[in-house]
Amino acid sequence: MTTLGTLAHARAGDKGDTSILVVAPFEAADFTRVDAALQHARVAQHFGVTTEAVTVHAVPGLVAFTVVIRGRLDGGVTRSRAADPHGKTLSGHLLDLPL
């Protein structure tokens, strides 16, 4: 199975209870293909959240995408009992998205 990780890399950040992921294709020529993979309904299903919790913004000038997932960090860094309260592993999970 081919995954998003074969075409792109990702970084994760957080703001409160919101995870902010940046996805950038390795090659600019794959921008359209990555865009097709990052439809917000597909991303929401992949993370097990509602479609309303996900926003995907294309940033063509940077050849990248911003993926925002609200309510995913169990209350945020200071409230979460999760092993990864910053959600850094979420970028790796997104790269497992099937193409």
Automatic annotation (TrEMBL):
InterPro entries: AtuA-like_ferredoxin_dom
Domain AtuA-like ferredoxin-fold: 3-98
Pfam families, alphabetized: AtuA_ferredoxin (PF23544)
Superkingdom to which the source organism belongs: Bacteria
Identification of the protein by name: AtuA-like ferredoxin-fold domain-containing protein
